[in-house]
Amino acid sequence: MTSFSELGIGKRLCAAVAGMGWNQPTPIQVAAIPEGMSGRDMFGQAQTGTGKTGAYSLIVLGRTRPGSDVPTTIVLAPTRELADQVSKEMRNLSKETRHSVAALYGGAPYADQIRRLESGCDVVVGTPGRVLDLHSKGYLKLDAVKELVIDEADRMLDMGFMEDVETIISLTPAGRQTLMFSATLSDEVRGIAERSMRDPMEVSVSHDEPVSDLVRQYYVEVKRNGKMDVLRDIMANGDPKMVVFCSTKKMVDDLYEGLSLEGRKVGAIHGDMPQARREKTIRGFKRDRMNILVATDVAARGLDIDNIECVVNYDAPLDPETYTHRIGRAGRAGRTGVSFTFVTPKEDRRIPSYEDYMDRKVERVTRKQVQKLEIANPELKALHAEDDGDGKPRREKVKVKAVVRKEKAAEGPGMDYTVISLDLGKEAGLNRVAVISHFTSKAGIGEESIGRIGMASASSFVEVDSTVAAEVLKRINGSKINGRKVRATFAPEKTRCRDKLAKR
Asked: Of 76, 125, 85, 99, nearest to 10 (Cα)?
């Protein structure tokens, strides 16, 4: 088994990788990093979730020195969301190396991005349009670039960005190293690679694992506003351990909030959440502290859990590669699994593309049929309930521990909660995920210090451990969420969230 230390990235990057919780490199990292570290141009076929961002990030950070006045690395991404996600991952990886990373994309203020460039940065991650725009205005220099990364080249082509990409390529030094990644290898993408690279090495890791025959695949034709009802039917059918994939971070937040309000044990992960929070959520999911995980594709990278019984594509993926990657989370280690894909009337043509790609049939089922299907895997239920040596099943023990914690919270004076009221609510785009992330980052407290969260249209109510409530209030009051200043006060009489909301 290959370790990161064997890939030649150096001790500092190995320390950063360990800090992010990456235990071992993915196949594309094993294949790409040693060659990339030698300076060779590279053309990789890799989809989201294979570890390609980590691969090219470790290469460029390992090959360039920090502390530059002008960028020595340019990473081009097709969308603002991807540029944001890549820049955050690179900042996490550069904590030990001290490289400075700037994200440049449209829809964000010019002033902040110009300030980052003028203060000096080593790496620029940006969309082609904003990169060219800031270059034409004289703020972004490209003549010192040693490493050029073109991510998701096929999407660049589909979105009409390739002319801009080729312009940027022409503005960088001829002696640069070029790394290009694409989920598909069309003739157009290959042509650009041939024109911009010197004797490139080709790496292909587009599939995680072949889709197992043990995964039963279904799709349900449903209107957009009917998805939640079908999801409830699936959850009610044997209480399966499941991953629910959404296409956007907002959908993850909305679904998490809706399921939480119903009292379900649910976790959520997406690219805007702090790495520590994502890792904690995944650990909880692995240990059966929750049986539902709502996620985007990027955040679910490296999700390697053998006892997932069901995968739900709440949003049908655009391409068959992503579909294959998602449903491959179930049916592992020789055990059966099931997948459901929700298809709206305009998305029905996607199913044939999945079938052609896998050479397998995806069976159409109605909502009534979903209610009758055997979804939960008895083998996995038995596995979860195995004796740990004290005569009590694992799931039962988890429930007992939860009850004990609740009783201690009620009896112990140190576990009392104080309610903090915020003057922003759903109308300001807030949800429970955003509130938790804001409190943990701004107030410096852990999630264990946060109790219930109540959301109203124009206000929110957050329970925090009374022993730290005064300091939390001090740090939260006057802070900004979604660009809006927060007015925080203590709610009267330590009113609990559910009581406060009941009066509205």
From this structure: 99
